[in-house]
Design goal:
globular, single chain, mainly alpha
């Protein structure tokens, strides 16, 4: 497969997760639960697809359940005036435990899950999921740029007083931002599971944290954020291909697999940020 096309395929689910992180950052409430939400979305996609016998239904139910779960937790935490940053971190740990618990309860294992009903044509699924991810990403960028709701989301974190002056409620948009983050991350998990025709624990593979890094490096500008996603995706592609090159045979695979994170760390250190006054 063409290298650039492979990178585009790899970038598709990561771009979706990153936009969820970007929207929540715009609203002033960074979604720290993305990593394990990807894993939970993947598991629920597997379970719901087996239950319904249909992948589209499984994906729809998975995304809906993840959004409802985040909404319920967010509403309780908001009413209790909890520290939402800590709540977000706690949600990440909770989602990880929930996926593991459900796997053990429903299927008797915390390991890899596969079934004949969850087996798909790899090439077709890869192309279809890539198209869906980019279409949704483009739609969300247009929403942020050209709609009233998108503008409100963009200023919630920085100018919430403007919303209040217009009779709008910043808290509502903060809630919406987390729902976007939950939907995007869980859908990305569904994409990863469908591409592998199985559920693999920890299949997020650091994409949730990489998405946060992309938002940071892209300085919250959609175009720069997308470029950061492509850079990280290229690093992921390189880490998976250099293992087959003779010159890297003696390099531990763990080092090669860590390449995307090394790239992220290097860029975070190297790229200048605004000085704090």
């Amino acid at each position: 497969m063409n290298i650039s096309l492979s990178i585009i395929h790899i970038a598709a689910p990561l771009l979706l997760v990153t936009l969820g992180a970007l929207i929540s950052e715009y609203a002033g409430r960074m979604a720290m639960f993305l990593e394990c939400m990807i894993n939970l979305g993947a598991f629920l996609c597997y379970a719901c697809t087996l239950w319904t016998g249909n992948l589209i239904a499984g994906i729809t139910l998975s995304v809906a359940l993840c959004m409802l779960l985040v909404l319920a937790i967010e509403q309780v935490a908001s009413r209790r005036k909890a520290n939402m940053f800590l709540i977000s971190l706690a949600m990440n740990m909770f989602f990880a435990a929930l996926a593991s618990l459900l796997s053990a309860t429903l299927y008797g294992t915390r390991g890899v899950l596969y079934h004949d009903l969850f087996r798909f044509d790899a090439a077709r699924v890869r192309v279809a999921t890539t198209i869906v991810c980019y279409a949704l990403a483009f739609a969300q960028i247009i929403m942020l740029k050209d709609t009233t709701a998108g503008l409100a989301l963009r200023v919630t974190g920085s100018d919430s007083d403007v919303l209040q002056a217009r009779g709008l409620f910043p808290a509502r948009y903060r809630t919406i931002s987390w729902l976007f983050a939950a939907a995007n991350a869980s859908l990305a998990g569904c994409v990863l599971a469908a591409r592998l025709s199985s559920y693999v624990p920890g299949m997020a593979g650091g994409r949730g944290w990489t998405a946060l890094a992309a938002v940071y490096l892209g300085k919250k500008h959609p175009l720069f954020v997308a470029l950061a996603v492509l850079v990280f995706s290229a690093a992921e592609y390189a880490s998976s291909t250099v293992q087959n090159i003779a010159a890297f045979k003696n390099v531990p695979s763990s080092v090669l697999l860590a390449l995307p994170y090394l790239v992220a760390l290097t860029l975070i250190i190297a790229v200048p940020q605004k000085k704090q006054l």
